[in-house]
Each structure stands twice: as structure tokens, then as C-alpha cells.
């Protein structure tokens, strides 16, 4: 029986995520492509490996459990092989694969000046933008070397260090002059909020708690994963929202949006460098992580 490592990788990801859709998102495959790989594996072995339960998630059959157990052993073997090869190949390993959350990928990374990044001209840096949860999974699996995230990971296999703190800006539809008011008054107005796992939302919750409030006190009317959609809804006067100022700098300059100045000051969002605790780290990756931690990005005035 011939084994395809890619097919085994797809099967293992579905088993971990208990979902074809989530596995596809992490692997960069469509759901039909994931199903095709699993179906081919089932045909090769000759029996079902997975079943869907009433909750819509995927469960392994007994055969699937045995296969998954041995796939984990295969990857342990490959990690050991990597450890043996590393001393022989480390000087030829010239690439770093970085996963970024949306704000980091579109704003924070670009804020590192050309002079600062020139030192990496001999290293190929691959940037991937995606959700933090997906980037953390890819880190653990090894398809990413490091992540820049707006929330810290919960997985104990990952280490993280805060490296950038960015003040947040409350904003609303265009006004003749910016309003100055207390957060205790603002929470009663319609709020358009980012997704539950977003770092901006986390920073707002922390700020509210500091001032004796909670998110439950806010009049949340819409939540969205798309920052552009949030900006458009705010511009149409459907409510206020909150993001780093650099995200809405163009709209503020065009007077499509107006800032809201809080009497209590501004919430602050942290960004984190995240990497695996275990496994070998190339010289290039270690230098790159230290560069992020020790070099301040050239962010616009907030």
C-alpha cells in the first residue's frame, strides 16, 4: 500500500478540527478538495474513516483512530529527522514564513521602514494574512514559522511576546467637529463591533472593565469580521466603532468619518510575536524574531 503524505496531512487536519471546512481554511483548500483527499484515502484502505454526528462535526471511526494515531507517529519521526538534518542544512535555509492577522498584515508590517527591512534582503520572507486562530494552528503544524497576532495564543505549545502597543480610535459618521464624551455615555449609542476573537474587541472589553463597565452594557447592533464593512456601516451613520487610527486614517482625512475623543483616554491594543516552544529554530528565524521584538515599527502618529 502506497501512502501519500499530503493526503495523510489533510486527513489529520480534518481529524483535529472535526470539520472539513475548518481544515480546508487552514490548509488553503476548498471543502470539496478536502473531501476528495479523505474519500481517496478511504477507498485505498477499504473502509470509512470518518462519520458526521448529529452536531454536524466529524468523528473518527475505529479505523480512523488507528490511522490518526500512526500519522502522529509519522510526524514525530519527521520532526526527529528535521532535528538530525538541521546542523547540516541550516546555512542554506534562507526563508521565513510569517502569518499575520489582518491589521498586522495590512498596517503594522508595512510600518517597518525599508532601511530596517533591508537587512533581510538575503532571506526570503513569505507573508500570509489570516485569522489568528488559523495562524496558531498552522504554527503548531509547522506550515508557519512565526505569527504576528492581535491576541495571545491559548495553546500551551506556543510562546508569545507583546511587541507593539497601539492606541485605538473610537469613530463615527462625519461631523463638523469631533465629539468629546465619556465612555459611560458612548456605550448607550449603537455600536458596530468586530468579530469575537478580534484583538480590538478584546482591548475594548479590557478598557470597559477598567471603568466599571462591560460589553453587555454596550448597544451592539452589528458584528462583522470585515473591517471595510464596519467602516462603511459607520459612514452610513448606523453606529460607532473602534479600530487603530491608522486603519481609518484615509477616511478621516477625507472627512468620511470623524473621531470620538473619550474623556477617559484611549483603549490600547497589543500585538504579539508568536512561535513554537519546541522544535528547532533556524538562525534566520531567530534573528527575525529578535528583529521584531527589538525594532519599533515606524507607525504614523496616533
Automatic annotation (TrEMBL):
The keyword Transcription applies. It holds the Pfam family LysR_substrate. Residues 1-61 form the HTH lysR-type domain. Gene3D superfamilies: Periplasmic binding protein-like II, Winged helix-like DNA-binding domain superfamily/Winged helix DNA-binding domain. GO terms for molecular function: DNA-binding transcription factor activity; transcription cis-regulatory region binding. Keywords: DNA-binding, Transcription, Transcription regulation. It comes from the Bacteria. PANTHER family: HTH-TYPE TRANSCRIPTIONAL REGULATOR (PTHR30126), HTH-TYPE TRANSCRIPTIONAL REGULATOR GLTR (PTHR30126:SF40). Belongs to the LysR transcriptional regulatory family. This is DNA-binding transcriptional LysR family regulator. It comes from Desulfosoma caldarium.
Amino acid at each position: 500500500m502506497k501512502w501519500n503524505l499530503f493526503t495523510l496531512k489533510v486527513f489529520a487536519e480534518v481529524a483535529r478540527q472535526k470539520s472539513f471546512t475548518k481544515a480546508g481554511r487552514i490548509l488553503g483548500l476548498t471543502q470539496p478538495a478536502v473531501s476528495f483527499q479523505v474519500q481517496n484515502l478511504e477507498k485505498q484502505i477499504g473502509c470509512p474513516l470518518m462519520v458526521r454526528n448529529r452536531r454536524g462535526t466529524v468523528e473518527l471511526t475505529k479505523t480512523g483512530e488507528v490511522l490518526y494515531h500512526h500519522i502522529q507517529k509519522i510526524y514525530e519521526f519527521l520532526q526527529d529527522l528535521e532535528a538530525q538534518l538541521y546542523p547540516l542544512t541550516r546555512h542554506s535555509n534562507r526563508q521565513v514564513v510569517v502569518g499575520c492577522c489582518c491589521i498586522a498584515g495590512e498596517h503594522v508590517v508595512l510600518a517597518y521602514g525599508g532601511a530596517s527591512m533591508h537587512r533581510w534582503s538575503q532571506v526570503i520572507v513569505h507573508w500570509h494574512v489570516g485569522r489568528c486562530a488559523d495562524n496558531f494552528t498552522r504554527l503548531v503544524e509547522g506550515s508557519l514559522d512565526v505569527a504576528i497576532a492581535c491576541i495571545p495564543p491559548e495553546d500551551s505549545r506556543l510562546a508569545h511576546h507583546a511587541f507593539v502597543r497601539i492606541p485605538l480610535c473610537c469613530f463615527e459618521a462625519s461631523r463638523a467637529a469631533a465629539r468629546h464624551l465619556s465612555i459611560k455615555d458612548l456605550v448607550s449609542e449603537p455600536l458596530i463591533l468586530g468579530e469575537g476573537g478580534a484583538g480590538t474587541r478584546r482591548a475594548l472589553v479590557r478598557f470597559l472593565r477598567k471603568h466599571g463597565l462591560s460589553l453587555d452594557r454596550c448597544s451592539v447592533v452589528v458584528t462583522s469580521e470585515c473591517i471595510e464593512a464596519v467602516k462603511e456601516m459607520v459612514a452610513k451613520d448606523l453606529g460607532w466603532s473602534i479600530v487603530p487610527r491608522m486603519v481609518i486614517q484615509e477616511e478621516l482625512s477625507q472627512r468620511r468619518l470623524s473621531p470620538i475623543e473619550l474623556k477617559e483616554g484611549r483603549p490600547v491594543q497589543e500585538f504579539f510575536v508568536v512561535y513554537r516552544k519546541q522544535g528547532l529554530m533556524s538562525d534566520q528565524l531567530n534573528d527575525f524574531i529578535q528583529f521584531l521584538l527589538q525594532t519599533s515599527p515606524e507607525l504614523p502618529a496616533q
